[in-house]
Every structure is written in C-alpha cells, then in structure tokens.
Design a protein that fits this description.
Layout: H1 3-15, H2 28-37, H3 43-56, H4 60-65, H5 68-75, H6 82-97, H7 106-110, H8 117-128, H9 137-147, H10 156-168, H11 175-189, H12 207-210, E1 228-238, E2 241-246, E3 257-258, E4 261-262, H13 268-276, E5 278-280, E6 284-285, E7 289-292, E8 297-310, E9 319-322, H14 324-328, H15 334-345
Parallel strand pairs: 1-8
Antiparallel strand pairs: 1-2, 1-4, 2-3, 2-9, 5-8, 6-8, 7-8
Helix pairs in contact: 1-11, 2-3, 2-8, 9-11
Length: 350
C-alpha cells in the first residue's frame, strides 16, 4: 500500500465521517441514491433529502413505478433537477434491462442515465468492493494540491493528469475506506477556502503547502462574465389559490411546477385570457431578484395579479390551482419557493 493511501486510511479511521445515513451498507440502491444527491451538493443539505427519499422510495422497483412528479417533489429545493429525472429513468432502465437488480458490472453501471465515471466507480467501490478510482470535485482539489498540478481541473488535459494519479494511488485492499477517506479529506480538511492544513495527514508531502500555493491551487475556472437573462413570473391569485404551470420536460426546471412566465408585460392581460381563460386586474410588482445558474444569471421579476373571472377550462392538464401552503409542497424550483414564502410569511425576496 502506498504511503499516501496508508496515511489517509489511518486518518479516516480516527477522524473521518462514520455516522452518515448511507454508510455501513452495501445496498447498491442506497449507495447510488446518495452518490447522485451528493453531486455538487453538501452533505448537510443532502441528509434530510436522502432520508425522505428512501422513506418514500425504499427500493428500485418503487422508484421506477413512481410518477415523475412525485420524484421531483422529493427533490424540490435540492437543485440540479436533471439528477432526479435521470435517477427515475435509470430505475426504469434497471427494471427493464436488469430484471430490477442493480447491475454489478462497471460498464453496465456507467451506461445508466446520469452516472459518470467517478460516480460509477464510487458505487462499485462502496457496494461491491471493486477497486476503482474516483475523481469528484473534492478529490480533484486534494490531488491538485498534493501533486502541485496547475490548470483548471475541468480542462481535459488537466483532468487526464488527475485521473492518472487517481488510478496510480489505488491500494490493493481496503478500497471502501480509502475511497471514503479521499471524500472526507476533501470535504472536511482540504476545503476550497480555509483548508485545515495543520491537521492534514498529507501535509509533509503536499506540494502546494511546501510551495505556499495552497490558495492558488487548484487553478480557478477561467473567469468570464455570466450572460444575463430575464423573465417575468405571473403570480395569478384567485379565491385563496395561485396558478402553477408544469414546465416542459427539458430545459431549466424541467418537469417542475412553477409560475407562468411572460416576456412582454404589456400583453399580460391578453396572455392570461388566451392561455388560461382568466380575466385579471392591474398587476402589482413584487421585488425582482437574481437566480444564478452555472452558465447564466436569471433576473426574475414577479408580477402579482388578482383573477376576477375564471372560465371552467382554466384548470387544464399541465395547470393546477393550489393554496400557498399546498404549492410549497409541490415539485417547485427554488425561485418559485422564495416567492411563495414571501407571499405567505411576508419574507423579503433576495
């Protein structure tokens, strides 16, 4: 076993995380769900979502049989909703292709929707004890600092260098604890800001620490201004309820329920009439706020309207009227949740 592996395994046994709800199991379903939820999301955020998700969908068959709305509802607020749609699609694929049994073969795992090389490796290691290298964001940071590797870790050339190191460092045994040690080290000590270098088991051999470059590595993503977009959300209220509309399956917030959106506010009354059969009064403007995605920033301008007349066809498939309280329980994106909370509790929009 390499000195690198030995050091972090010893550290993990003494100082690592041992009480997370998905630890201590080799059930590939539980491992898979946790790994998908943990993509780009902190452990503290994931834990309650994971517990609720497993309570409602305890196995592959129940997840595959569930309605997509129910799956998205359990994901509401967690973000990156394509993860939930892919999780659902993968469960259905497992039922169809693998008779409902999570596949053991690495290539079959990798072929499932929403599973990349690192996630497939983590599942293989934790569920089946297979010797596979992982390379998530935390691990990239550990390797970049330890080996002094420059360049943005999302760049293919740099990523290939990191994969080479990840493969070379794999221990011959103890793959589960080694994999967990890497994850824990990046999440708790070798953090993006304020890393706890004095407590790190790798400090004596860390290139970044020796060269006083911990703050420089890994090299940040090249900065470029995020494109700006804008949308107006229509908050249509009638008899104590608000109207939500199901978004298209692809694109941002795909498959979620949200407020109808419009580009030209001068056509709001006609839009409500033609689209929903609603007659509305003059609108009131709620505070605008920004929501940042990975590749762009969205300026959201909520406009509230009182509905004075609603035709019977106002509630069509893909539309539903809910109280504010019930709307908060639906599968809604974070900005819609913020607007609802502001309306319900008088909370300020960001």
């Amino acid at each position: 076993m390499s000195n690198f592996a030995s050091l972090i395994i010893t550290w993990q046994r003494q100082h690592g995380r041992h009480d997370l709800p998905w630890q201590g199991t080799r059930d590939p379903y539980c491992v898979w769900v946790s790994e998908i939820m943990l993509q780009q999301t902190q452990v503290s955020t994931v834990v309650p979502y994971y517990q609720r998700f497993l309570a409602s969908f305890p196995d592959i068959a129940s997840l595959a049989a569930a309605d997509e709305d129910a799956v998205l509802q359990h994901w509401s607020g967690l973000g990156y909703y394509s993860r939930a749609r892919n999780l659902h699609a993968a469960a259905q694929a497992i039922m169809a292709r693998h008779a409902g049994v999570f596949p053991h073969d690495f290539e079959h795992i990798l072929a499932l929707p929403g599973i990349g090389r690192s996630t497939a490796a983590a599942i293989s290691a934790f569920a089946f004890g297979e010797r596979r290298a992982i390379l998530d964001g935390n691990v990239k940071r550990v390797f970049a600092r330890y080996f002094g590797i420059e360049g943005f870790t999302g760049d293919k050339r740099v990523e290939n260098m990191l994969w080479e190191q990840a493969e070379a460092l794999l221990p011959q045994r103890g793959i589960e604890i080694y994999t967990q040690a890497l994850m824990d080290l990046g999440a708790t000590l070798c953090t993006r800001s304020r890393p706890a270098c004095a407590a790190c088991p790798l400090r004596s051999d860390c290139s970044a620490l020796a060269q006083n470059r911990v703050k420089e590595l890994p090299t940040p993503r090249p900065k470029k201004a995020l494109p700006q977009r804008a949308t107006t959300m229509l908050v249509l209220r009638h008899q104590g309820e608000i109207l939500l509309e199901k978004r298209p399956p692809s694109g941002i917030w795909g498959g979620l329920w949200s407020f109808p959106e419009i580009e030209d506010m001068t056509d709001a009354a006609r839009f409500c009439d033609e689209r929903f059969g609603l007659t509305v009064t003059a609108g009131t403007t709620l505070p605008a706020f920004d929501h940042t995605f990975t590749h762009f920033k969205l300026r959201i301008m909520p406009q509230q309207f009182a509905v004075t007349h609603a035709l019977p066809h106002a509630a069509q498939p893909g539309q539903m009227w809910l109280t504010l309280e019930d709307a908060l329980e639906a599968a809604i994106p974070t900005p819609a949740r913020k607007v609802l909370l502001a309306l319900l509790h008088g909370a300020k929009l960001p």
